[in-house]
Write a structure and sequence with these properties.
Length: 499
């Protein structure tokens, strides 16, 4: 209604024949109400417009936010369920010049949710089913990845080449390592004393000893008590070690004790035999086919797979095992990757395997035991100390596989694969995924054959690029990793080219 109409309506009421005394009173009221409604509709319009603009501004701000955070979201999506313990400070810093110049971006397969099945095309004329087994680590299972014939050929080729002990009983250079560490007993004591109470509890010593540091010998809590008693380290017998008592438990005394007592294979971190099979040009067709299928499965650039370690074939006898471990080490600035070490000019004090992905093939179905265990898969949090609790060591695959969150039963031809590293959120390798901890449970009946295809990628992009431009930098130890194989049984390495 316009202002002009309002005036005309009012004038019409003035000339009304009713002569009612209420008219003069009603008039201003109605006029007021007309006027009020006009004011109201204008202010209503203004309010609506303000809300509309605020809404538009919000939408634009949201779009900007999503755009600038897409990198981080990508990283957390790759984990699907990020936990507070997994914040990656480096993913919040602005990309460096190097990062902007990257021209390789690593695809990562989405897990969606545990139990999700996706169809994958790995060989022509057939689709395979790939099931998500866990999101932390991102882990998949593909039944029938290898045919029966392929499994047989791989096992035969490995036998023809010869398998070596995966872990030697006594590792040379152990004392050298201890000397290189260059830490006083006080310093070691302080580092081990996690709760800083000036005494070492059993689990504090144990956590530090389960690593391969001590000749790769696996120690159970009982072993430790025995060592304490044998060395008479715990003089007051209270189960705790003071600094004075700890001094007695020096590395030498510890080694001597183990030598006296004798170590059985079952007490090693790993009790298996293995060999390596070259998969490049000229290799057996089955080995080349498997490599091609791995490229299709992982969707990674073929060069990365070509320049990775050869296929490792492993055989466990009855009683064999591999305690829980990581296939890749954490990467710090002072750590270099084994595969890029030669290409990297810098000499770094530490070296570790950098295996972005593990593809594990089961070459036979095992009669009893031999599952691959993932003790902390999809745990809400990861806490290294709580892996060993109340004398239950979750890393011990001879005793405690039944307590692992996830176990995969070996079935001939099935492949499982997982990511050992998180994404850095910008298409490259990020931090080590602690949840990728896994091991081979003890084989209780029969033998177990598996093969590992590791895809090596250096979290340091520039080092990886330098390595790719320097293929002759390929580490010869991969062909013949055992020092003895390189010197006395050279034919093992040469045979590779024939197979
Ligand atoms: O044997 C298994 O199930 C696991 C093997 C493994 O983790 C390895 O060889 O690194
Ligand atoms: Fe492994």
């Amino acid at each position: 209604m316009t202002d002009n109409q309002e005036t005309q309506d009012a004038a019409a009421e003035d000339t009304s024949p009713s002569g009612s005394a209420t008219l003069p009173l009603r008039q201003p009221c109605e006029r007021l109400s007309c006027h009020k409604s006009s004011v109201c509709s204008r202010s209503y319009f203004v309010v609506v417009m303000v809300f509309f603009h605020v809404y538009i501004i919000n939408v634009i701000a949201l779009l900007f936010y999503v755009h600038y955070n897409s990198g981080q979201e990508d990283a957390s999506r790759s984990r699907d369920a990020p936990s507070s313990g997994h914040q990656r400070p480096e993913s919040r810093r602005p990309p460096s010049k190097d990062e902007l110049q990257r021209d390789i971006s690593l695809p990562r397969i989405e897990g969606i949710r545990v139990g999700h099945v996706q169809k994958v095309s790995l060989v022509s004329g057939r689709l395979h089913e790939m099931r998500t087994l866990s999101l932390k680590p991102l882990l998949f299972e593909i039944p029938g990845f290898l045919s029966e014939d392929e499994c047989r050929v791989v096992m035969q080729l490995a036998q023809l080449k010869g398998l070596m002990e995966s872990q030697l009983m006594v590792q040379d250079g152990q004392e050298e390592l201890a000397r290189e560490l260059n830490l006083s007993p006080e310093e070691i004591f302080n580092l081990l004393d996690i709760n800083q109470d000036g005494q070492l509890q059993l689990h504090e010593v144990y956590v530090s000893l389960w690593t391969e540091r001590h000749n790769g010998i696996w120690l159970t809590p009982e072993n430790l008590r025995e060592i304490y008693a044998g060395l008479k380290a715990d003089k007051d017998g209270n189960g705790l070690l003071s600094l004075e008592e700890f001094r007695l438990l020096s590395n030498d005394a510890f080694q001597r004790f183990l030598l006296q007592r004798g170590v059985k294979r079952s007490q090693l971190v790993r009790n298996s035999r293995h060999t390596w099979l070259y998969q490049g040009k000229g290799a057996h067709q089955v080995l080349q086919d498997i490599k091609e299928r791995v490229i299709r499965l992982t969707r990674l650039p073929p060069t990365l797979v070509d320049l990775s370690e050869p296929l490792q074939v492993v055989r466990y006898e009855e009683g064999g095992h591999y305690h829980a471990h990581h296939d890749s080490g954490p990467v710090y600035p002072e750590t270099a990757c084994t595969h890029t070490r030669l290409a990297a000019n810098a000499s770094t004090p530490f070296e570790t395997s950098c295996r972005y992905i593990t593809v594990l093939f089961y070459l036979n179905s095992v009669d009893g035991g031999g599952e691959t265990a993932f003790p902390v898969a999809d745990n809400r949090t990861y806490d290294e100390v709580s892996l060993i609790h109340n004398d239950v060591d979750l890393l011990d695959t001879r005793r405690n596989c039944d307590k692992s969150n996830l176990r995969v039963k070996p079935t001939k031809g099935t492949a499982v694969f997982w990511y050992n590293y998180l994404s850095d959120g910008r298409g490259w390798v990020g931090e080590q995924d602690e949840y990728a901890l896994h091991g081979g449970c003890m084989v209780t009946h029969g033998t177990k054959w598996v093969a590992n295809k590791w895809i090596n990628i250096d979290p340091d992009y520039q080092r990886q690029v330098r390595y790719q431009q320097c293929p002759h930098c390929l580490s010869p130890e991969w062909w013949c990793p055992h020092p003895a194989a390189q010197t006395s049984i050279l034919s093992w390495c040469n045979l590779d080219l024939l197979l």
